[in-house]
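Write out this protein's structure.
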Amino acid sequence: VTSIGSGAFFECTSLTSISIPDSVTSIGDCAFINCTKLTSITIPDSVPSIGENAFRYCTNLTSITYTGTVEQWNAITFGSNWNRDTGNYTIHCTDGDIAKDGTVTYH
């Protein structure tokens, strides 16, 4: 698997967590839109882009584990509304955590 295509998990309301393999290099538009029970996801540092509305309406999303650094996360190209109407998540990177509001706490 090299990409999570547009709408791949659209409205998959039984999905609670997912770990994306290191082979993936893109997450498409609306890939996880309206996955209302999704609470956690692991994204590898091989992903340079996350599509528009990718996690929109994932209202219970609280934890994103990213296998790279805070700097690498901030270099990702994000589509509009990629995280609109999501839960109050924290992004856990190898060297720090990023709150949904953008506050960074380094380890």
